[in-house]
Amino acid sequence: MNKRTRCAERIHQKIYLLKCPICGKSLRVVEQKSLICAQKHTFDLAKQGYVNLSTKQVHTHYGKTLFEARRKIIVDHGFFNPLIHILSEQIGKQLNLPTDISILDLGCGEGSHLAKICQMLIHDASRSVTGCGIDIAKEGIQLASKYYPEQIWLVGDLAQPPFKERQFNLILNILSPSNYQTFDQMVKPGGYVIKVIPGSGYLKELRSSIYEHDKAQYSNADTRTLFTEHFPDTITQNIHYVAHLNREGIRDLIRMTPLAWNVSEEKRTQWLEKESADITCEFELLIGKG
Ligand SMILES: [Zn+2]
């Protein structure tokens, strides 16, 4: 079965989650190659196994090179493993979720976080897990569909996502901008929204070598305040570890981090010549109830 056919079947089973991003009507899969609504708005399934449901062409800074580097950082170098492990533990053991759960990752990038979380949840218990990832960057979704055919991958606008309202038990928003209106519209009553934000020490080695002192400090206070105002019963958890990267890992980190985009050539070379580096990882999990 080719990737497009497989994607068509997966979407057909979960078609009740989706709506036409133009008119809001239900979609159906036609001939295993398109999604079409009652008003004949049509969206073709890409041969790689995803659907582009965005209504406008968007160009982002996030190109193929960045997503390939991010994938390597996650999959090959295990940079985020402790974070994803704790996140999966929280979801699997602490949250009151049914055995049949649907997860939406808003701003999923190249999809590795969502795919790993789904794998861990299925592995740990007799659960049925539906994972949907959406991102505005087509280059990210193309990589996601290439490596993770078990999930549903969509290119789409995070402010007007092509999903029916209140269908997801869990919304994930990992190191990605928030849209609170979308959180509210997407999460099922009694479901959860989990946002991961960087802690003040995240990448501090990189930050302090790149910036002068005043910019070297990062604060997540505004983001946290906004989240806790929106979800008054927010549970927070701090995560701290040090990731050891080899030379190749440093190169991929530099490629994927927006922080490093404005670095001088001299500083970049200094980093790229290191044989290895210990990098501080600090995150905060914010868990809100829908
Ligand atoms: Zn339509």
UniProtKB/TrEMBL annotation:
GO terms for biological process: methylation. Residues 19-53 form the 23S rRNA (guanine(745)-N(1))-methyltransferase N-terminal domain. One of its GO terms (molecular function) is methyltransferase activity. Zn(2+) binds at residues 20, 23, 37, 41. Keywords: Metal-binding, Methyltransferase, S-adenosyl-L-methionine, Transferase, Zinc. The keyword Nucleotidyltransferase does not apply. S-adenosyl-L-methionine binds at residues 80, 110-111, 202. Gene3D superfamilies: Vaccinia Virus protein VP39. Residues 103-176 form the Methyltransferase domain. It comes from the Bacteria. The keyword Metal-binding applies. This is 23S rRNA (Guanine745-N1)-methyltransferase. It comes from Sporolactobacillus nakayamae.
